[in-house]
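Researcher: I'm preparing a figure for a lab meeting and need a structural model of a single chain. I don't have an experimental structure, so a prediction will have to do for now. The sequence is pasted below. Please return the structure as tokens so I can convert it later.
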Amino acid sequence: MPLLSVVLPTFNSGEFVVETIASLMAQSFTDFELLIMDDASSDGTWERLARLDDARIRLHRNAVNVGLPTNMNIAMSMASGKYLARVDHDDCAAPERFALQVALLEREPSITVVGSQLEHFHDEVGITMLPSDDATIKAHMVQGFEYLANQSTMGRLDFYRAHALRFDPNLYVVDDLGFWMDCMLHGARFANLPEPLTRYRVHANMTSRILQADRLYASKDRIYRRFLPLLFPRLSGQECEQLLMLYRRQEDMPQTLAYMVDVHRAARSALSHIDTRWGQSESGCRQSILNLLNNARQGFETRGILRNEHAEILDLIFQSH
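Model: Understood. Here is the structure written out token by token.
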């Protein structure tokens, strides 16, 4: 059995997947199997994959398109390694990625999942600044960004199987967030390496640029309607619903001062007691809620709805607990 199973889900990945696979075959760490999971591509991707000739590669093709979460679940059931790594079909891995992540998991048995920074390329350049420690990563899940880069992760397969953890096919785009939250609630500990070990291709057809907002919002509601009351047990049901609006784009939030008053009261209620039993940073959770509030306020200020005197009142409401 290989020490590592690498999952590469593909769907109409065109020429990008060729470069991705080349970066995996060039890894300094070689004790892995590569599960290439084609989700019924119709653009010639499967024909390209069928020409590959490497004993480490296991090809699988779904008869019909099942979507990324289900495709990942199939891969997890097929994997035979101790560790499971994820790679997206349009990204590339630095030559030392697998070696560094396996070394950390071997050295630190208390760490369940390790990610890395991303190096953006193609249409955009830059390197992410994701937190390295478990407590901050978990706190950032409250705000829904800057926690783990899914395509950079490697985790313990036995942990996923022991807790019957699966990707939720009802979640659009944010199935990874739902999965990592489930891992957290079952006792997982996370880390991010400081090196940019995954090259993240930014291009016109990437999922994040062609999102369906209504489906995304419904998925975020599904996640946070369950997650927020666990971390903030003094939230009422109505207050939770008000906070859910903070996970929308600024222009899609309720555009009234009354909503801003209500959501500041809800945030105050949430932060009056934070349950940190899952290891998340209390100050980090507070900052995540503040980040969401500040984003909403900036949108209101840009539209001229929120003036200075209104901001002062909101501050008094929020600080009055």
